[in-house]
């Protein structure tokens, strides 16, 4: 990085900070209070608000903007009423609008708000400033729900609730009915009312204006800690929380076997999910003989790194209500049932009146990853205590126990966050220790980790300093995920934001960060990196970001060689990237990303990344988006294989190679109504690795030209190598989903997949496609019916 670039970056950052301090005044916030009222007769759920209770009761109506003009008066009025009886909580909202014919109302599937107005509300029954559950809808009655916690927002939770919305000459209105079974709340003495945290928001999509009931300070970190208060709920005689979700599924599958013959199978499955409430605060979730065959196909990639690829979790049971278990970073749910048969899984979780969270996860599966076919028990136990000022401390333990003298693994850990009264500073950290045992003998590869971070978390100027280290034998991977242990990381970050509109911009921010890495044992230098970022949203709602990154001196990659204590020396590098995203209100929008990385000492080794993602909205029902990405690593030096030297030990071979990857993803959906939709996802990932030259890795990390001891790593006559690789991952997920009653659904899914690798390199895309067709695809058609049975509803009908 040249002296001129450094000066320019610092100059831009400091000038921007000066402009921001001159342009933005402090935010002054006060908490609002709303009151819920008890009713004897439940309202008719039609979205029209004709009942007297919505006409005479006081409403929450004093809203302020959160975007684009924080704390300014909104352009449209909003009124919200909250009522309850012994069965449900009711929310009614009137979104006044002087131009109802201009209300944007694109239909969407559950948990996806597209180009539409939105009304939403979240509740924090323990009023701890950390945990909440939220619901939102649109003028067309979409269902969206989520859980917020210290890790962020999670929309994987799908509650059982109902909503109806209507557009009328005065704007649009909505009515929401949520059974008490969807809430976990403290048990209080008779006559003592609940006091919940709460906030309400409304989005006017055509102007991209967002308004909230309790004002938000954009310079403060967090959402739940900036809520108002809901009072008035008391004496609720909650019904027994017992819900059953029996399912039945049938498949027709065809695939080509190893002999090239096409085989057919038609399995039929059945099972049960159950939710049982224990008091008002705790819930037991169980799945017996689960079937996850309809979940979306993984984004498979060619992995040339020494690290395991981490995949997203798509199985509903492992997504819903797992916020406690995800604390501490010790639980990677894809380990459970990843290979072999998952028999059952159970989650017990909730919070006491003193806001102590308790969670126990238990699953049993037949593990086939190591060939032992051992019966395996997976257990996670968590205790989480909320602290003053929205802090917390968590203790957790994971255990993986295998039968037949298999390897057992134990990990204990903690995570904490301490904050000052104004939530402007925080001290966060974590620690963990692991132990393994094989049979009756405990192994000696016990390991540990710990980390700590001090952060300024509010204001226009924020920053953090952190330190983290892992011992060489730290390994949580029986039930967790760690790419590689044995490292020490020290990092710092500084960022500055302007959150009030000025000039041509609605928001603008800068950030600088730096990081230095060492090997833990033996203590040795790894690398140093830096980054600088500028990003802004214009008043036309066009997002742009420019980022510079670099490694200012050569480093050592201690894992690339696949040999202990022998590093690969990585040359210094610099990269520049640009990200853009146009206004999603338009029928056509475009996201773009471009990045270039270069290395001064090895100028022939460079990288180029390009991603284009157009979005098309053909109507309020039909929409599609397409993602095309192209990655070229030109003359990359990368690990190729381990070879035996006849005069010594193993030799780590590196190669100079062309690595080109193409990714195409098409997503399309047609929404019949908020409970019925047809969606398609088509993905093709194609990666080619073409080796040109091979090198032997020296003990100091440098490379020497390599002459094969035993053969033809590269055929000079044909220009090909036995290490060349052509990889394809193809998937089609076509899904019809019908929610025929709250909590119950019918889904029909067609899957078409292929995962193929070879050493013959095709001449182009169409030649590669022809080779794929010859390999043969796997096809699966399935139908699955899930029915929701609520004990309290059945009891009330008697």
Describe the structure.
Helices cover 6% and strands 53% of the residues. The radius of gyration is 28 Å and the shape is globular. The longest helix is centred in the first third of the chain and has 21 residues, at 3-23. Residues 1-23 have low confidence and may be disordered. Strand 4 and strand 5 form a beta hairpin. The chain is built from 5 helices and 46 strands. It has a 24-stranded antiparallel barrel. Strands 1, 3, 6, 7, 8, 9, 12, 13 and 14 form a 9-stranded mixed β-sheet that branches. A 5-stranded mixed β-sheet has the order 2-4-5-11-10, with no helix packed on it. The chain is mainly beta and 798 residues long. The chain has a domain at 31-231: Immunoglobulin-like (Sandwich).
Largest sheet: 24 strands, antiparallel, barrel
**CATH fold-level topology of the domain at 31-231:** Immunoglobulin-like
Helix amount: under 10%
Give the CATH architecture of the domain at 31-231. Sandwich
**β content, as a range?**
over 45%
The separation of the N and C termini measures: 76 Å
Radius of gyration: 28 Å
Poorly predicted regions = 1-23
Number of helices: 5
Shape: globular
Supply the CATH class of the domain at 31-231. Mainly Beta
Average pLDDT, rounded to a whole number, is 91
Compute the number of strand runs.
46
Q: Which structural class do the helices and strands define?
A: mainly beta
Topology:
Layout: H1 3-23, E1 33-35, E2 37-38, H2 52-56, E3 64-67, E4 78-84, E5 88-96, E6 118-124, E7 132-137, E8 144-149, E9 152-154, E10 162-168, E11 171-179, E12 195-204, E13 209-212, E14 228-231, E15 242-256, E16 262-265, E17 268-278, E18 282-288, H3 316-319, E19 342-351, E20 356-367, E21 374-387, E22 391-402, E23 407-419, E24 425-438, E25 441-442, E26 447-456, E27 461-470, E28 487-498, E29 505-519, E30 524-538, E31 543-551, E32 555-557, E33 568-570, E34 573-581, E35 588-598, E36 606-617, E37 622-644, E38 650-673, E39 676-697, E40 703-705, E41 714-715, E42 720-721, E43 725-741, E44 744-758, H4 765-775, E45 778-786, E46 789-790, H5 791-797
Parallel strand pairs: 1-14, 2-4
Antiparallel strand pairs: 3-13, 4-5, 5-11, 6-7, 6-12, 7-8, 8-9, 10-11, 12-13, 12-14, 15-16, 15-17, 15-45, 15-46, 17-18, 18-19, 19-20, 20-21, 21-22, 22-23, 23-24, 24-25, 24-26, 26-27, 27-28, 28-29, 29-30, 30-31, 31-34, 32-33, 34-35, 35-36, 36-37, 37-38, 38-39, 39-40, 39-43, 41-42, 43-44, 44-45
